[in-house]
Each structure stands twice: as structure tokens, then as C-alpha cells.
Amino acid sequence: MSFEAFAWAARQRVTSTQKLVLLMLAERHNKDTGQCRPSHDTLAEDCGLTRRSVIDQIGKLAQAGYITVLPRAKDNLRLPNQYRLNFHFGIQAAPKAPEDDPYLVVNDVHHPVVNQVHPVVNDVHGGGEPRAQEPGIKPGREPKSRKQRASAPPAQAVDLDFSTWPNPPAPQVLGDWLHLRRQRRAPVTPTVLESFGRELHLAAAMGFTVDQCLAKCCTRNWQGFEASWLERDLPNTNRTSGAAHGSYRESAAERVLRHAAEGEREEQQRRSDQDRRGLGQAGAVIDGDAHVVGSHG
Predict the structure, then answer these.
(1) What is the pLDDT of residue 159?
(2) CA–CA separation, 186 vs 184, rounded Å?
(3) CA 116 from chain center: how many Å?
(4) What digits encode the pLDDT tens for the residues 255-289?
(5) What is the distance of C-alpha 146 from the center of its chain?
(6) Distance CA 142, CA 172 (A)
(7) pLDDT tens digits along 224-239
(8) pLDDT for residue 187
(9) Ranges of each domain in the chain
(10) Looking at residue 8, what is its pLDDT?
């Protein structure tokens, strides 16, 4: 690392991302040979940025004049670029040396004291007011993106209809689940909410809450959800035996569905019995009337 290059990079008035890339370039700069040729992947790892972002920031720094990018290749194979740091560009004017200081140590070889600051024409006032050199091309400022944290629910969460669910989820769990759906590029539509609602009711009958089900989706990276997927989390899970001679045993989800179907059949049978009893009573009255009429005849 070149201390001179690093100090120069730290003084430049650029955006935070551009300064980070510039500092990492200075950190890779060889003060003896001037070589500076880290790959885009190396810079991305040093800066903690994506490769695409590093390439964009290098382009902005080169356009502004802070660096010069020299492409390299060998046998039609592209090699990492050579970066030349333009130390003369964007440097603040050196301060004037204090006068009559007998204790001032001056290193004339490496760091000479500048006794006079050349004035820079101030276009506004028209005078010779000394001020810092401004870059010829100002680097573009990055817009402030309004990115939400992955754990925070987006604004659209308030518009979701959870009427088909056993109960609405907690905000934190909902935010994590919506973040997973966005990563999988799976929008949350009314059809999706209704489908999840049916499975969540089955899961509730198995003893799982809505928050627990959504948490399982997040930790296991499930885009969809079925209550039967939670069988292995039950304390006494009935599964199909793995042995060749094992007998089939219904799962918890199948047991819930079977109980629901049996209840529906019992209700239908009860209504049918009531209808038959009603018809039987009506027939008895008719028969009685007919017998009376016959006796008088």
C-alpha cells in the first residue's frame, strides 16, 4: 500500500461509494512500481460491494478524472485493468508555511514547505482568492435510494387481506415472509392468500399457529405451503413405514381431513333421517284419514 496514494484518496470529495473504491485502489497501489491492477472481483470483495457496482463506480471515477483505466490483455485473453491514480487531480491547495518559526523542521527532499499558494481565479468574485482546485468534471452523485430493511414489512403489507387466515401474522414474521416472496419473485396475490388460508386452517388443527407456519416457510425457503409438510415437526408423527412390509398409517393432515369428511357425512345422515321421519309422520296421517272415510262408507 502507498501511504501517499491512500492519503490522496481520503482527501477527495466524492460520494461514499466512490471514495470506498478509490481507497481500495490506493490500498492496492504499489508505491515503488506504481502498479495497481486488482481485478473487479478482488475490488468487490475488498469493498463489500457487488461486481456490477464496482464497475459502475470505476467508470464514474475515470470520467471525473480521478483515475485512468488502462485495459490489459494477453493472447486475446483479457487481464485485470491497470489503474493509474491521478494524484495531481482534485488535490486541495497546500497551506502556507508559518513565518518566523525557528522550530519548524522542513524536509526539502520529500515534503518541501510551500511558501506561496498560487492564486486560482474565482469566477464569481473575479479576484485572486486562494481556494482549493475543483475537479474539471464533478463525479455524479448517487441518488438516495429508499431501500427498506429486509426485516421491515413493505408499505403494501397493509393492503393484504388476511380474512381467510385463522388470524393475521405478526408484523416481524410477515415482513420476513414477504421478503422471501420478493426474493423468489413470487407476488402475494389474493389467490395466494386464499390458498395459504386453507392450508393454515389445516395446520391450526394440527396445533401450529400462523406465525409458526410462516416462520417455517422462511427458515426452510418454502415459496408455497402445505400443512402436510409440518408432519415431521409433530411430537408423535404417523408416517408410512420405510420397511417393505410396513403397513400404511395416515398422517396428521390426512387425519384432520378424514375427521372433517366424517363430520360432514354424519351431518348429511342426520338431515336425511330427519327428512325420512317427517315423511313417515305425514304418511300416517293420510292413512288414518283414509281409514276413517272407509269405515263410514
Answers:
(1) 77
(2) 5
(3) 54
(4) 777 777 787 788 888 888 888 777 666 555 444 44
(5) 13
(6) 30
(7) 999 899 888 887 644 4
(8) 92
(9) 3-85, 155-233
(10) 85
Q: Write the DSSP string, 139-194.
A: PPPPP---PPPTTSPPGGGGG---TTSSSPPPHHHHHHHHHHHHHTT----HHHHH
- Where do we find the cell 481485478? 39
The Cα–Cα gap between 219 and 113 comes to 62
Residue 176 grid coordinates:
420476513
Q: What is the rounded (10 degree) CA torsion for 159, 161, 167, 171?
A: -20
C-alpha span between 44 and 113 (Å, rounded) = 38
Domain 3-85 in CATH 1.10.10.10: yes
User: Which single residue is written with the C-alpha cell 389474493?
Assistant: 190
CA 10 to chain centre: 31
Q: Cell for 47? A: 469493498
Task: Specify the residue for cell string 457496482.
Answer: 53
Q: Whole-angstrom Cα distance, residue 69 to residue 32?
A: 19
- Grid cell 387481506 in the structure block, residue: 161
Q: Determine how many CB atoms are found less than 10 A away from the CB of residue 277.
A: 10
Angle at 47 between CA 45 and CA 53, to 5 degrees: 90
Radius of gyration of the chain (CA): 39
